[in-house]
Amino acid sequence: MILSAIAFYLFAAIIIASAVMVVGSRNPVHSVFFLILAFFNAAGIFVIAGAEFLAMIMVIVYVGAVAVLFMFVVMMLDINYVRLREGFLQYLPVGALVGLILLIELIFVLTTQANVPEVLAISAAPAPAVTDVTNTHALGQLIYTRYIYLFQAGGLILLVAMIGAIVLTLRERPGVRRQKIADQVGRKRGDAVEIKKVTPGSGI
């Protein structure tokens, strides 16, 4: 029990430090590396809580796919770091205001959810034994019944983020040729292949 508590606080402290470094790093590549570190420690917390499936998903999906996607996007955008740092102080008051509003909302949710009847009913419901329901089955039953709309909304948010990344990377650049799918599909054999008849002995 003591080792589990020590491991939990250790992982939690590393996650908080990594999150601060994600925002405070001057190089976006370093921010992605700290984000990967935060994902690994979050997976460790899930293992301690007995949610091995979530820990595996955290490593496979978030570290193996999302973080790698962030890395490629950051490297492909060719961001001007000097110009990016110049506008940091300009938007700092707005960012601080938004962060303060989010903090107030989070405190409000955490302090008032204990008095909501729905939350009390869920917390008072008896939990099934671990031998009766597996972790994956319980998670799927909860997501696809009670939180199905929120799950679909999360998928739409990821879809919008993917479309935004594609739009950013497909912008017009001088000196770079863009792929034209319609021209490739509509090209005929005569446009790409030219047959010439060579008489014997006329070669070099």
Count of DSSP-assigned helices: 10
| Overall strand count | 0
Based on Cα principal axes, name the global outline. Answer: elongated
Q: Separation of termini?
A: 85 Å
- CATH level-four homologous superfamily name of one domain: NADH-ubiquinone/plastoquinone oxidoreductase chain 6, subunit NuoJ
Mean pLDDT equals: 80
Main sheet attributes: strand count, strand direction, barrel closure: none
Low-confidence blocks of residues = none
Annotated CATH topology of one domain: Four Helix Bundle (Hemerythrin (Met), subunit A)
CATH class of one domain: Mainly Alpha
Our estimate of the beta-strand percent is under 5%
Order of helices and strands: HHHHHHHHHH
What portion of residues is helical?
over 70%
Please identify the structural class as seen in this structure.
mainly alpha
Rg on CA atoms, Å: 26 Å
CATH architecture of one domain: Up-down Bundle
Structural account:
It is a single chain. This protein has a domain at 1-86: NADH-ubiquinone/plastoquinone oxidoreductase chain 6, subunit NuoJ (Four Helix Bundle (Hemerythrin (Met), subunit A)), CATH 1.20.120.1200. Helix 1 packs antiparallel against helix 2 and helix 2 runs antiparallel to helix 3 (52-77). The mean pLDDT is 80. Helix content is 73%, strand content 0%. It is mostly helical. The N and C termini lie far apart (85 Å). The protein contains ten helices and no strands.
